[in-house]
Protein backbone atom coordinates (compact mmCIF):
# COMPACT_ATOMS: atom_id res chain seq x y z
CA UNK A 1 0.00 0.00 0.00
CA UNK A 2 1.31 3.42 -0.94
CA UNK A 3 1.56 5.94 1.93
CA UNK A 4 -0.72 9.00 1.72
CA UNK A 5 0.75 11.86 -0.26
CA UNK A 6 -0.29 14.31 2.45
CA UNK A 7 -1.02 14.24 6.16
CA UNK A 8 -4.59 14.55 7.39
CA UNK A 9 -3.80 18.03 8.63
CA UNK A 10 -2.71 19.04 5.13
CA UNK A 11 -5.85 17.51 3.61
CA UNK A 12 -8.25 19.25 5.98
CA UNK A 13 -6.41 22.56 5.57
CA UNK A 14 -7.98 22.75 2.11
CA UNK A 15 -11.44 22.98 3.67
CA UNK A 16 -12.73 26.33 4.86
CA UNK A 17 -14.32 26.41 8.31
CA UNK A 18 -13.17 22.90 9.23
CA UNK A 19 -14.40 21.92 12.70
CA UNK A 20 -13.85 18.31 13.85
CA UNK A 21 -16.86 18.66 16.16
CA UNK A 22 -19.19 19.63 13.29
CA UNK A 23 -18.08 17.99 10.04
CA UNK A 24 -20.62 17.94 7.17
CA UNK A 25 -21.04 14.57 5.45
CA UNK A 26 -19.68 15.86 2.14
CA UNK A 27 -16.53 17.24 3.81
CA UNK A 28 -15.84 13.95 5.62
CA UNK A 29 -16.26 12.05 2.36
CA UNK A 30 -13.91 14.44 0.57
CA UNK A 31 -11.23 14.17 3.28
CA UNK A 32 -11.32 10.38 3.14
CA UNK A 33 -11.16 10.34 -0.66
CA UNK A 34 -8.19 12.74 -0.71
CA UNK A 35 -6.26 10.81 1.96
CA UNK A 36 -6.77 7.21 0.81
CA UNK A 37 -4.26 5.59 -1.57
CA UNK A 38 -4.80 2.33 -3.50
CA UNK A 39 -2.83 -0.83 -2.86
CA UNK A 40 -0.16 -1.55 -5.46
CA UNK A 41 0.01 -5.30 -5.99
CA UNK A 42 -1.06 -7.15 -9.14
CA UNK A 43 -1.66 -10.85 -9.70
CA UNK A 44 -2.49 -12.82 -12.82
CA UNK A 45 -5.67 -14.90 -12.62
CA UNK A 46 -7.35 -17.47 -14.82
CA UNK A 47 -10.51 -16.06 -16.37
CA UNK A 48 -12.83 -18.33 -14.37
CA UNK A 49 -11.31 -17.05 -11.11
CA UNK A 50 -11.54 -13.35 -11.95
CA UNK A 51 -15.22 -12.67 -11.25
CA UNK A 52 -15.63 -9.74 -8.87
CA UNK A 53 -11.94 -8.82 -8.98
CA UNK A 54 -10.61 -5.38 -9.93
CA UNK A 55 -8.89 -5.16 -13.30
CA UNK A 56 -5.34 -3.88 -12.82
CA UNK A 57 -4.57 -2.85 -16.42
CA UNK A 58 -6.47 -1.97 -19.57
CA UNK A 59 -7.30 -4.97 -21.74
CA UNK A 60 -6.57 -4.22 -25.41
CA UNK A 61 -8.43 -6.25 -28.02
CA UNK A 62 -6.01 -8.47 -29.99
CA UNK A 63 -8.61 -9.17 -32.71
CA UNK A 64 -11.56 -7.65 -34.50
CA UNK A 65 -14.94 -8.63 -33.06
CA UNK A 66 -16.64 -9.85 -35.10
CA UNK A 67 -13.74 -11.05 -37.21
CA UNK A 68 -15.73 -10.76 -40.45
CA UNK A 69 -18.87 -9.20 -41.85
CA UNK A 70 -21.68 -11.58 -40.94
CA UNK A 71 -25.42 -12.02 -40.88
CA UNK A 72 -27.46 -10.83 -37.91
CA UNK A 73 -30.19 -13.42 -38.56
CA UNK A 74 -31.32 -16.37 -40.62
CA UNK A 75 -32.36 -15.27 -44.11
CA UNK A 76 -30.91 -14.53 -47.53
CA UNK A 77 -27.81 -12.46 -48.32
CA UNK A 78 -28.25 -10.35 -51.44
CA UNK A 79 -27.00 -7.38 -53.43
CA UNK A 80 -29.04 -4.30 -52.60
CA UNK A 81 -28.44 -3.12 -56.17
CA UNK A 82 -30.60 -6.03 -57.35
CA UNK A 83 -33.59 -4.64 -55.52
CA UNK A 84 -33.81 -1.69 -57.86
CA UNK A 85 -36.90 0.34 -57.07
CA UNK A 86 -38.02 -2.33 -54.56
CA UNK A 87 -35.79 -0.54 -52.04
CA UNK A 88 -38.18 2.38 -52.48
CA UNK A 89 -41.27 0.17 -52.20
CA UNK A 90 -42.28 0.07 -55.88
CA UNK A 91 -41.97 -3.57 -56.96
CA UNK A 92 -41.13 -7.12 -55.87
CA UNK A 93 -37.94 -8.83 -57.13
CA UNK A 94 -37.29 -12.54 -57.63
CA UNK A 95 -33.74 -13.83 -57.02
CA UNK A 96 -32.03 -17.17 -57.67
CA UNK A 97 -30.58 -19.03 -54.67
CA UNK A 98 -26.90 -19.72 -55.44
CA UNK A 99 -26.03 -21.71 -52.31
CA UNK A 100 -25.98 -21.66 -48.49
CA UNK A 101 -23.67 -20.04 -45.95
CA UNK A 102 -23.50 -21.61 -42.47
CA UNK A 103 -21.98 -20.25 -39.27
CA UNK A 104 -18.40 -21.50 -39.39
CA UNK A 105 -18.69 -22.56 -43.03
CA UNK A 106 -18.88 -19.79 -45.61
CA UNK A 107 -20.42 -19.98 -49.06
CA UNK A 108 -17.64 -21.11 -51.39
CA UNK A 109 -18.76 -19.60 -54.68
CA UNK A 110 -19.41 -16.11 -55.94
CA UNK A 111 -22.78 -14.38 -56.06
CA UNK A 112 -23.69 -13.02 -59.46
CA UNK A 113 -26.20 -10.23 -60.11
CA UNK A 114 -29.73 -11.54 -59.66
CA UNK A 115 -28.59 -14.20 -57.18
CA UNK A 116 -28.72 -14.55 -53.40
CA UNK A 117 -27.37 -16.96 -50.78
CA UNK A 118 -29.30 -18.72 -48.04
CA UNK A 119 -27.47 -17.56 -44.86
CA UNK A 120 -27.57 -18.49 -41.17
CA UNK A 121 -27.06 -16.18 -38.19
CA UNK A 122 -23.35 -15.47 -37.70
CA UNK A 123 -22.33 -16.82 -41.10
CA UNK A 124 -19.76 -14.86 -43.14
CA UNK A 125 -21.36 -12.48 -45.62
CA UNK A 126 -20.41 -13.26 -49.22
CA UNK A 127 -18.18 -10.39 -50.38
CA UNK A 128 -20.61 -9.49 -53.17
CA UNK A 129 -23.56 -9.09 -50.78
CA UNK A 130 -24.38 -6.17 -48.50
CA UNK A 131 -27.87 -6.91 -47.19
CA UNK A 132 -29.79 -9.74 -45.50
CA UNK A 133 -33.53 -10.20 -45.74
CA UNK A 134 -35.04 -12.31 -42.92
CA UNK A 135 -36.47 -15.55 -44.22
CA UNK A 136 -39.96 -14.72 -42.88
CA UNK A 137 -40.08 -11.59 -45.06
CA UNK A 138 -39.66 -13.50 -48.33
CA UNK A 139 -42.44 -14.78 -50.61
CA UNK A 140 -42.79 -17.86 -52.85
CA UNK A 141 -39.65 -19.35 -51.34
CA UNK A 142 -38.22 -22.55 -52.89
CA UNK A 143 -34.80 -24.17 -52.88
CA UNK A 144 -34.04 -22.33 -56.14
CA UNK A 145 -35.80 -18.96 -55.90
CA UNK A 146 -37.13 -16.34 -53.47
CA UNK A 147 -39.23 -13.26 -54.00
CA UNK A 148 -38.37 -10.08 -52.11
CA UNK A 149 -41.55 -8.03 -51.55
CA UNK A 150 -41.51 -4.33 -52.28
CA UNK A 151 -40.09 -2.34 -49.34
CA UNK A 152 -39.33 -5.45 -47.26
CA UNK A 153 -35.67 -4.57 -46.71
CA UNK A 154 -33.33 -1.61 -47.03
CA UNK A 155 -29.74 -1.57 -48.21
CA UNK A 156 -27.38 -2.77 -45.43
CA UNK A 157 -30.10 -4.27 -43.23
CA UNK A 158 -29.17 -7.14 -40.87
CA UNK A 159 -25.46 -7.05 -41.69
CA UNK A 160 -22.89 -6.97 -38.88
CA UNK A 161 -19.60 -5.37 -39.85
CA UNK A 162 -16.14 -6.63 -39.03
CA UNK A 163 -14.85 -4.92 -35.88
CA UNK A 164 -18.30 -3.48 -35.16
CA UNK A 165 -18.10 -4.58 -31.51
CA UNK A 166 -14.34 -4.21 -31.02
CA UNK A 167 -11.46 -3.52 -33.36
CA UNK A 168 -7.82 -4.55 -33.01
CA UNK A 169 -6.02 -2.21 -30.59
CA UNK A 170 -9.18 -0.86 -29.00
CA UNK A 171 -9.57 -0.93 -25.20
CA UNK A 172 -11.99 -3.74 -24.45
CA UNK A 173 -12.07 -3.19 -20.67
CA UNK A 174 -10.46 -0.43 -18.65
CA UNK A 175 -8.33 -0.57 -15.52
CA UNK A 176 -10.34 -0.30 -12.32
CA UNK A 177 -13.37 -2.22 -13.56
CA UNK A 178 -14.90 -4.75 -11.19
CA UNK A 179 -15.27 -7.78 -13.44
CA UNK A 180 -18.82 -9.03 -14.01
CA UNK A 181 -20.10 -12.15 -15.83
CA UNK A 182 -20.52 -10.23 -19.10
CA UNK A 183 -16.90 -9.04 -18.85
CA UNK A 184 -15.68 -12.64 -18.54
CA UNK A 185 -17.67 -13.49 -21.66
CA UNK A 186 -16.17 -10.55 -23.55
CA UNK A 187 -12.63 -11.56 -22.54
CA UNK A 188 -13.31 -15.14 -23.59
CA UNK A 189 -14.55 -13.88 -26.98
CA UNK A 190 -11.13 -12.26 -27.42
CA UNK A 191 -9.32 -15.52 -26.62
CA UNK A 192 -7.88 -14.10 -23.37
CA UNK A 193 -7.33 -16.83 -20.78
CA UNK A 194 -5.75 -14.80 -17.94
CA UNK A 195 -6.21 -11.26 -16.68
CA UNK A 196 -4.18 -8.95 -14.40
CA UNK A 197 -6.14 -8.02 -11.28
CA UNK A 198 -5.45 -6.17 -8.05
CA UNK A 199 -4.84 -8.50 -5.14
CA UNK A 200 -7.69 -8.70 -2.68
CA UNK A 201 -7.82 -6.02 -0.02
CA UNK A 202 -7.09 -7.38 3.46
CA UNK A 203 -9.41 -5.90 6.08
CA UNK A 204 -9.21 -6.56 9.82
CA UNK A 205 -12.24 -5.80 11.94
CA UNK A 206 -13.26 -6.09 15.56
CA UNK A 207 -15.81 -4.82 18.06
CA UNK A 208 -14.98 -3.11 21.34
CA UNK A 209 -16.92 -3.18 24.56
CA UNK A 210 -17.00 -5.15 27.80
CA UNK A 211 -20.76 -5.55 27.40
CA UNK A 212 -20.41 -7.56 24.17
CA UNK A 213 -20.68 -11.33 24.04
CA UNK A 214 -20.01 -13.65 21.11
CA UNK A 215 -22.65 -16.09 19.92
CA UNK A 216 -22.59 -19.18 22.12
CA UNK A 217 -21.66 -17.32 25.29
CA UNK A 218 -24.18 -16.72 28.05
CA UNK A 219 -25.58 -13.22 28.44
CA UNK A 220 -24.86 -11.63 31.78
CA UNK A 221 -27.07 -8.82 32.99
CA UNK A 222 -26.54 -5.70 30.90
CA UNK A 223 -24.72 -7.58 28.12
CA UNK A 224 -25.67 -8.01 24.46
CA UNK A 225 -24.60 -10.27 21.64
CA UNK A 226 -22.15 -8.70 19.19
CA UNK A 227 -24.04 -8.20 15.94
CA UNK A 228 -21.67 -5.65 14.39
CA UNK A 229 -19.02 -8.18 13.41
CA UNK A 230 -21.58 -10.19 11.47
CA UNK A 231 -22.85 -7.05 9.75
CA UNK A 232 -19.29 -6.05 8.79
CA UNK A 233 -18.44 -9.59 7.73
CA UNK A 234 -21.39 -9.55 5.33
CA UNK A 235 -20.69 -6.12 3.85
CA UNK A 236 -16.95 -6.76 3.48
CA UNK A 237 -17.58 -10.17 1.90
CA UNK A 238 -19.85 -8.55 -0.68
CA UNK A 239 -17.01 -6.15 -1.51
CA UNK A 240 -14.68 -9.10 -2.15
CA UNK A 241 -12.22 -8.42 0.68
CA UNK A 242 -10.02 -10.95 2.47
CA UNK A 243 -11.19 -10.79 6.08
CA UNK A 244 -9.42 -10.95 9.42
CA UNK A 245 -12.12 -11.28 12.10
CA UNK A 246 -10.49 -10.35 15.40
CA UNK A 247 -13.58 -10.87 17.52
CA UNK A 248 -14.48 -8.75 20.52
CA UNK A 249 -11.73 -6.69 22.14
CA UNK A 250 -12.14 -5.70 25.78
CA UNK A 251 -12.23 -2.10 26.92
CA UNK A 252 -8.74 -1.89 28.34
CA UNK A 253 -5.75 -0.05 26.91
CA UNK A 254 -3.38 -3.03 26.59
CA UNK A 255 -5.91 -5.21 24.76
CA UNK A 256 -6.93 -2.41 22.40
CA UNK A 257 -3.35 -1.43 21.54
CA UNK A 258 -2.36 -5.04 20.96
CA UNK A 259 -5.37 -5.56 18.69
CA UNK A 260 -4.69 -2.41 16.67
CA UNK A 261 -1.01 -3.27 16.27
CA UNK A 262 -1.79 -6.83 15.17
CA UNK A 263 -4.40 -5.52 12.73
CA UNK A 264 -2.19 -2.96 11.02
CA UNK A 265 0.70 -5.43 10.76
CA UNK A 266 -1.54 -7.87 8.88
CA UNK A 267 -4.13 -5.82 6.99
CA UNK A 268 -4.50 -2.92 4.57
CA UNK A 269 -7.50 -1.48 6.39
CA UNK A 270 -8.99 -1.76 9.88
CA UNK A 271 -12.61 -1.29 10.84
CA UNK A 272 -13.59 -1.02 14.47
CA UNK A 273 -17.04 -0.57 15.95
CA UNK A 274 -17.52 1.26 19.21
CA UNK A 275 -15.09 3.21 21.36
CA UNK A 276 -14.74 6.39 19.26
CA UNK A 277 -17.17 8.54 21.22
CA UNK A 278 -16.24 10.46 24.35
CA UNK A 279 -16.64 8.16 27.35
CA UNK A 280 -14.90 7.17 30.53
CA UNK A 281 -14.08 3.64 29.28
CA UNK A 282 -13.30 4.57 25.66
CA UNK A 283 -9.52 4.26 25.45
CA UNK A 284 -9.57 3.72 21.71
CA UNK A 285 -9.20 7.42 20.85
CA UNK A 286 -5.97 7.87 22.79
CA UNK A 287 -4.41 4.68 21.44
CA UNK A 288 -5.37 5.43 17.83
CA UNK A 289 -3.92 8.91 18.08
CA UNK A 290 -0.69 7.55 19.57
CA UNK A 291 -0.26 4.97 16.80
CA UNK A 292 -0.74 7.27 13.85
CA UNK A 293 -2.40 10.12 12.00
CA UNK A 294 -6.03 9.91 13.09
CA UNK A 295 -8.86 12.45 13.19
CA UNK A 296 -11.90 12.14 15.42
CA UNK A 297 -15.08 13.65 14.10
CA UNK A 298 -18.57 14.50 15.11
CA UNK A 299 -20.25 14.31 11.73
CA UNK A 300 -23.41 16.28 10.98
CA UNK A 301 -25.50 13.17 10.38
CA UNK A 302 -27.99 10.85 11.96
CA UNK A 303 -27.44 8.04 12.78
CA UNK A 304 -23.67 7.70 13.16
CA UNK A 305 -22.33 10.96 14.53
CA UNK A 306 -18.99 9.84 16.08
CA UNK A 307 -16.35 8.51 13.71
CA UNK A 308 -12.57 8.19 13.54
CA UNK A 309 -10.50 8.06 10.37
CA UNK A 310 -6.81 8.00 9.57
CA UNK A 311 -3.78 5.75 9.26
CA UNK A 312 -1.93 3.91 12.01
CA UNK A 313 1.28 1.90 11.93
CA UNK A 314 3.20 -0.70 13.91
CA UNK A 315 6.64 -2.17 13.22
CA UNK A 316 6.82 -0.41 9.88
CA UNK A 317 3.45 -1.65 8.64
CA UNK A 318 0.55 0.74 8.12
CA UNK A 319 -3.18 0.46 7.60
CA UNK A 320 -6.02 2.88 7.07
CA UNK A 321 -8.40 3.00 10.00
CA UNK A 322 -12.15 3.48 10.12
CA UNK A 323 -13.47 3.81 13.66
CA UNK A 324 -17.24 3.41 13.37
CA UNK A 325 -19.88 3.99 16.05
CA UNK A 326 -21.14 1.15 18.23
CA UNK A 327 -24.84 0.99 17.38
CA UNK A 328 -25.62 -1.54 14.61
CA UNK A 329 -27.61 0.77 12.32
CA UNK A 330 -24.96 3.49 12.68
CA UNK A 331 -22.32 0.92 11.70
CA UNK A 332 -24.20 0.12 8.49
CA UNK A 333 -24.86 3.75 7.61
CA UNK A 334 -21.28 4.91 8.18
CA UNK A 335 -19.94 1.89 6.28
CA UNK A 336 -22.18 2.51 3.25
CA UNK A 337 -21.59 6.25 3.06
CA UNK A 338 -17.92 6.49 4.14
CA UNK A 339 -15.97 3.23 4.38
CA UNK A 340 -17.39 1.43 1.33
CA UNK A 341 -16.25 4.02 -1.19
CA UNK A 342 -12.84 4.32 0.45
CA UNK A 343 -12.27 0.56 0.40
CA UNK A 344 -13.22 0.39 -3.28
CA UNK A 345 -10.70 3.16 -3.95
CA UNK A 346 -8.05 1.20 -2.03
CA UNK A 347 -8.84 -1.82 -4.24
CA UNK A 348 -8.13 0.31 -7.30
CA UNK A 349 -11.76 0.08 -8.39
CA UNK A 350 -13.25 2.80 -10.57
CA UNK A 351 -16.54 2.81 -8.66
CA UNK A 352 -18.85 5.74 -8.06
CA UNK A 353 -20.90 6.45 -4.95
CA UNK A 354 -24.14 4.46 -4.59
CA UNK A 355 -26.68 5.96 -7.01
CA UNK A 356 -29.70 7.80 -5.66
CA UNK A 357 -33.16 7.64 -7.18
CA UNK A 358 -36.21 9.81 -6.57
CA UNK A 359 -39.44 8.58 -4.97
CA UNK A 360 -42.49 10.18 -3.40
CA UNK A 361 -42.77 10.02 0.36
CA UNK A 362 -46.09 8.57 1.47
CA UNK A 363 -45.86 10.42 4.78
CA UNK A 364 -44.50 13.52 6.43
CA UNK A 365 -40.94 13.26 7.80
CA UNK A 366 -39.71 15.71 10.43
CA UNK A 367 -36.19 17.05 9.97
CA UNK A 368 -34.20 20.13 10.89
CA UNK A 369 -31.75 21.63 8.38
CA UNK A 370 -28.08 21.40 9.34
CA UNK A 371 -27.40 17.68 9.27
CA UNK A 372 -27.81 14.76 6.87
CA UNK A 373 -30.28 12.09 7.95
CA UNK A 374 -30.46 8.52 6.70
CA UNK A 375 -33.86 6.97 7.37
CA UNK A 376 -34.70 3.35 6.73
CA UNK A 377 -37.38 3.06 4.08
CA UNK A 378 -39.50 0.63 2.11
CA UNK A 379 -39.68 1.44 -1.60
CA UNK A 380 -42.70 0.21 -3.55
CA UNK A 381 -44.75 1.00 -6.65
CA UNK A 382 -48.13 2.70 -6.42
CA UNK A 383 -51.22 1.93 -8.51
CA UNK A 384 -50.02 4.33 -11.23
CA UNK A 385 -46.65 2.61 -11.50
CA UNK A 386 -44.76 5.42 -9.73
CA UNK A 387 -42.10 4.86 -7.08
CA UNK A 388 -43.11 5.64 -3.51
CA UNK A 389 -41.35 5.21 -0.18
CA UNK A 390 -42.40 5.00 3.44
CA UNK A 391 -40.33 4.98 6.63
CA UNK A 392 -40.03 1.69 8.52
CA UNK A 393 -41.09 3.27 11.80
CA UNK A 394 -38.89 4.14 14.78
CA UNK A 395 -35.47 5.23 13.53
CA UNK A 396 -33.29 4.65 16.61
CA UNK A 397 -29.72 3.63 15.74
CA UNK A 398 -30.01 0.49 17.84
CA UNK A 399 -33.15 -0.82 16.09
CA UNK A 400 -31.53 -3.34 13.77
CA UNK A 401 -34.89 -4.85 12.83
CA UNK A 402 -35.64 -1.65 10.89
CA UNK A 403 -32.69 -2.41 8.58
CA UNK A 404 -34.01 -5.92 8.02
CA UNK A 405 -37.43 -4.60 7.02
CA UNK A 406 -36.02 -1.82 4.83
CA UNK A 407 -35.04 -2.19 1.19
CA UNK A 408 -33.61 1.31 0.89
CA UNK A 409 -32.26 4.32 2.72
CA UNK A 410 -34.06 7.66 2.46
CA UNK A 411 -31.35 10.33 2.22
CA UNK A 412 -32.37 13.69 3.64
CA UNK A 413 -29.60 16.13 2.79
CA UNK A 414 -27.90 18.67 5.04
CA UNK A 415 -29.81 21.76 3.93
CA UNK A 416 -33.13 19.97 3.63
CA UNK A 417 -35.96 20.55 6.09
CA UNK A 418 -39.07 18.57 6.89
CA UNK A 419 -40.70 16.51 4.15
CA UNK A 420 -44.44 16.69 3.44
CA UNK A 421 -46.43 13.70 2.23
CA UNK A 422 -46.15 13.61 -1.55
CA UNK A 423 -42.73 15.32 -1.68
CA UNK A 424 -39.95 13.74 -3.71
CA UNK A 425 -36.99 12.44 -1.71
CA UNK A 426 -33.68 10.79 -2.59
CA UNK A 427 -33.48 7.04 -2.03
CA UNK A 428 -30.52 4.64 -2.06
CA UNK A 429 -31.48 1.04 -2.79
CA UNK A 430 -29.79 -1.70 -0.75
CA UNK A 431 -30.18 -4.21 -3.58
CA UNK A 432 -27.13 -4.28 -5.82
CA UNK A 433 -24.72 -2.65 -3.36
CA UNK A 434 -21.37 -4.39 -3.61
What do you see in this structure?
There is one protein chain. The chain has eight helices and 25 strands. By secondary structure, it is an alpha/beta fold. The protein folds into four domains: 8-41 and 200-346, 3-Layer(aba) Sandwich (Molybdenum Cofactor Biosythetic Enzyme, Chain A), CATH 3.40.980; 43-65 and 164-198, Molybdopterin biosynthesis moea protein, domain 2 (Alpha-Beta Complex); 70-160, Beta Complex (Molybdopterin biosynthesis moeA protein, domain 3); 357-429, Beta-clip (Beta Barrel). The protein has a six-stranded mixed sheet. It has a five-stranded mixed sheet with strand order 7-4-6-5-8, with no helix packed on it. It has a five-stranded mixed barrel with strand order 21-23-22-24-25. Helix 4 (228-239) runs parallel beside helix 7 (328-346). The longest helix has 19 residues, at 328-346. The mean pLDDT is 93.
Largest sheet: 6 strands, mixed
Query: Which structural category do the helix and sheet elements fall into?
Result: alpha/beta
Classify the fold: give the CATH topology of the largest domain: Molybdenum Cofactor Biosythetic Enzyme, Chain A
Assigned CATH architecture of the largest domain: 3-Layer(aba) Sandwich
- The CATH class of the largest domain: Alpha Beta
Number of DSSP-assigned strands: 25
Roughly how much helix do the residues carry, as a percent range?
10-25%
Number of helical stretches of at least 4 residues: 8
Average predicted local confidence, pLDDT: 93
